Amino acid sequence: MRKTIIIGGGIAGLCSAYYLVKEGHQVTVVDRSNISGGASFINAGYLTPSHIISLAAPGMVTKGLKWMFNSKSPLYIKPRLDPDFIKWGLLFKKSATAQRVEAAIPVIKELNLKSRDLYESILDTLDFEFHYGREGVLMVYSSEEAEEEELHLAERAIQEGLEAKCLSKDELLDRQPVFSGHVRGAVLYECDRHITPNEFMQNLKQWLLNKGVAFQLDQEVLDIRVSGNKITAVHTTKGTFEADEFVLAAGSWTFPLAKKLGLYIPVQGGKGYSMNVKRETGITMPAILTEAKVAVTPMQGFTRFAGSMEFSGNNDYIRKERVEAIAGAVKKYYNDIEINAGEKAAAVSGLRPVSPDGLPFIGKTAKYNNLTVASGHAMMGFSLGPVTGKLVKQLVTDEKPFMDLSALKPERFR
């Protein structure tokens, strides 16, 4: 039985463990936390084939500079003299061209559609239970400018064969009467789905435990032992662990760990926030409030309000002004729904691993023949969990991947 160590217990790491266990591997998951929080648990839970435009899109650099000193803005960059972040920013700027975005569309679409199908396959296996909503996702806008942009994106999505429907204000209010008169309309992406992330992660983790997966938690990887072109072991704050294969799925901590191996895999942590409201809201459909970049999701027993992209380093510090910005958008877009002081005080954050070109890093490295990388998914991490896990399993077992991974090479920025 081959032994595999997965560094990272987020959605990519646990889905990789899921498929490797099914292949008969003996799996150990190493994580710096106890795998009970972070981006994989607190995200909006969307499976989004509709999100075909990468984060590194034309105009994002300009917006970032404009919003840089406004800590309430949807995209906030804390000014700091960090050479690694500056280099990452220059790579982001280089990637943010219409040509590169166009080239990324079929890759992002294929990843998302395959992952959505794999979620449904996992559901059909009855390995473990999880909430799975098929109502689609609404892109709700309140301004003429946003309406024009969203209708243009919907047109492109339809060209790509995705199910999208444009709703007038009256049609939107008929479906979701809780919206305020402030809205102009929406695009309903019927191709999208939603899940309760913390439930999925907890149940997947328990299934893995039941299958004999070893979890080495609350320990930081201090060093990685190498012999020639192979990794032989990882040294943590609590011990040394040897294996035949290694998977680097460390999310926002991928960059420093890759650096220990002499690899340049530029990932920066993009912080997101979320709040749960456990009282009745009347919200029955997931929605993204486009101008505010706030996601609203009805989950199992609560409604989640999430959003923000903050580049301020790898930390879990909660900026109250960003929490207030999310709460303010909710009050503006919905009738009689206000996040109260207690719910704001319970706000949590998580770090999304963001690559410079908006595409994840999935693949083997040229330098080490027993290392597979799975990171850099940004805001699509939860959406792409199963497809990432399936691809990792295929790479680790030397199967031919079921899609072309040339655009996702881990060492494409070296």
Plain-language structure description:
34% of the residues lie in helices and 25% in strands. With 414 residues, it is an alpha/beta fold. Strands 4, 6, 7, 8, 15, 16, 17, 18 and 19 form a 9-stranded mixed beta sheet that branches. The chain has a 6-stranded mixed beta sheet with strand order 10-2-1-14-21-20, sandwiched between helices. The longest helix is centred in the first third of the chain and has 28 residues, at 98-125.
**Main beta sheet strand tally, sense and closure:** 9 strands, mixed
Shape: globular
Spatial extent as radius of gyration: 21 Å
Q: Please count the beta strands (DSSP E, at least 2 residues each).
A: 21
Count of helix runs: 12
The stretches of 5 or more residues where confidence is low (pLDDT under 50) are none
Structural class: alpha/beta
Helix content, binned percent? 25-40%
Strand percentage lies at: 25-35%
Mean pLDDT: 95
Distance between the termini: 34 Å
Short description:
Helix content is 34%, strand content 25%. It has 414 residues and is of the alpha/beta class.
How is this fold's topology laid out?
Layout: E1 3-7, H1 11-22, E2 26-30, H2 39-42, E3 46-47, H3 60-67, E4 75-77, H4 83-95, H5 98-125, E5 132-133, E6 137-141, H6 144-159, E7 164-168, H7 169-175, E8 185-189, E9 193-195, H8 197-210, E10 214-216, E11 221-227, E12 230-236, E13 240-242, E14 245-248, H9 254-260, E15 268-277, E16 287-289, E17 294-299, E18 302-311, H10 320-333, H11 341-345, E19 348-354, E20 361-364, E21 371-375, H12 385-396
Parallel strand pairs: 1-2, 1-14, 2-10, 4-18, 6-16, 14-21
Antiparallel strand pairs: 3-9, 5-9, 6-8, 7-8, 11-12, 12-13, 15-18, 15-19, 16-17, 17-18, 20-21
